[in-house]
Amino acid sequence: MTARPTGFFLIAFLAAVICSFPGRAVFAQESEVVDEEVVDEIVAVVGDRILLRSEVDGVVLGLIQQQQMPYTEDLWMLALNQMIDQKVMTIHAERDTNIVISDDQVEQALNQRIDQLTAQAGGTAQFEEFYGKSLLDIRGDLRDELNDQMLADHIRNQKVGTIKITPSEVREWFAQFPQDSLPVIPEIVRISHIVRYPAASPEAKAYARDLITVIRDSIVIAGASLEEYARLYSEDQGSVENGGRYPNSRLGELVPEFAAVASRSPVGEVSSVFESPFGYHILRVNDRKGDLVDFNHILIQVDDSKADPADAIATLTMARDSILTHHVPFELMARRYSEEEASKRLGGRVVDPRTGERDLVLQALNFTWRQTINAMDIGTVSEPAEVELLDGKRAFHIVFLHRRVPEHQVDIMTDYERIEDLALQDKQNRVMSEWLDALRDDVYVDLRGKAKALSLAQNTL
């Protein structure tokens, strides 16, 4: 068996230290990973489980995109070994009668994964087309995969949770990198904000409501197709190409106004017109099982180009005064008054929606954000200002600037938290590698095909 590539984590550091920042190029394409002459093959047998070449190729593509490095055969073997390790841990977890993953836990994880993948694909139809299977078949495939992954994660977390790192170990780890090779981090900021949406004009609301009412009449009275009208008129870009359908949504994850209608609307009937923070809707529930609902809907948004910002600005001014004059915590005011749900739940903290990272590259934010932030000092709260939010909506907000770090080369003092995380990951990786070698001794592992050829080639170098 080929040993795991030594030093990989050190090599990846230069990319990993800034991998959460947007705007980086991907250096390899799928054609570099997949050999079109080979349809598929078994590349490893682990216990009674098999690993296919196509599965490894998929993981390699993910590593290329996340770590921003070119395809190499060493990288392919790294991905294979990670997948073998997961199956080895799954087998050991199954042998441990104290580790139990419930069906509800798997189902919840499955729903979250399906929702994420469907959104990334642009809708259920595109998702099914990409995988070449029905959603039902995909759910079946993913259910077993997620169950194994959760078992492996459980036994891994038991081991990782005991691994700590000291400040001296962090400094020693960082000292391994030549100073002239350290990457430059662009200017980053850490911010919180309180958001208020301008009130739509009565005329704009009336127009949107009238339009959705006409659409409903065309469907209910004239017999038009809800799916076809969704494709023609709906302004929900996440479902428009799929005829407005969301096949597996959890009621608890929908906005309250939408969930209320979806939970009580008779199956197969088109609902009355109703309003949510997104605009005016009609929906048809196709199926409902417990907290899961399958529905199609049509959204008509309210034109906010002529919305009156007076109330939004007044509320933000009041909140700012309470923070500065009466020393009310910004977090408390955000939870109480902000209308942007994502940041409101975090006490106003703004994070990268893709990674959850709090440190944001200033130049990656649009002009409305930069205009406000550039005029601020650390620890201050801005005046109310118009902003284009990360989801493209127009709103007004006040901003609290927690931190600003100018463009700089990675430094142990400035970037200690990030370096500490990476150093801890490296230590965990080394401890886990030794532990997994011991676990593999009790599990049958056999390399085949491409994996066996690469292993033999590397062992002869």
Contiguous uncertain segments of 5+ residues: 1-11, 18-31
The rough form would be described as globular
Count of DSSP H/I helices = 17
How many extended strands? 13
Q: Summarize the biggest pleated sheet.
A: 4 strands, antiparallel
The end-to-end span amounts to 14 Å
| Radius of gyration (Å) | 26 Å
SS-based class: alpha+beta
Q: What oligomeric state do these chains adopt?
A: single chain
Helices and strands, in N-to-C order?
HHEEHHHHHHEEHHEHEEEHHHEHEEEHEH
Strand percent estimate: 15-25%
Helix coverage percent: 40-55%
| Average of the residue pLDDT scores | 85
Spatially, the strands of the biggest sheet line up as 9-4-11-10
Explain this structure to me?
The chain is α+β, with helices and mostly antiparallel strands and 461 residues long. It contains 17 helices and 13 strands. Strands 9-4-11-10 form a four-stranded antiparallel beta sheet, with helices on both faces. A hairpin with a 2-residue loop joins strand 6 and strand 7. Helix 3 (53-67) packs across helix 4 (73-95), helix 5 crosses helix 6 and helix 5 crosses helix 7 (135-160).
Topology, element by element:
Blueprint: H1 8-16, H2 30-33, E1 42-46, E2 49-52, H3 53-67, H4 73-95, H5 103-121, H6 124-131, H7 135-160, H8 167-174, E3 184-185, E4 188-196, H9 202-220, H10 226-233, E5 245-250, H11 256-264, E6 274-276, E7 279-289, E8 292-300, H12 310-325, H13 330-337, H14 341-344, E9 360-361, H15 367-373, E10 385-388, E11 394-405, E12 408-409, H16 416-440, E13 445-447, H17 449-459
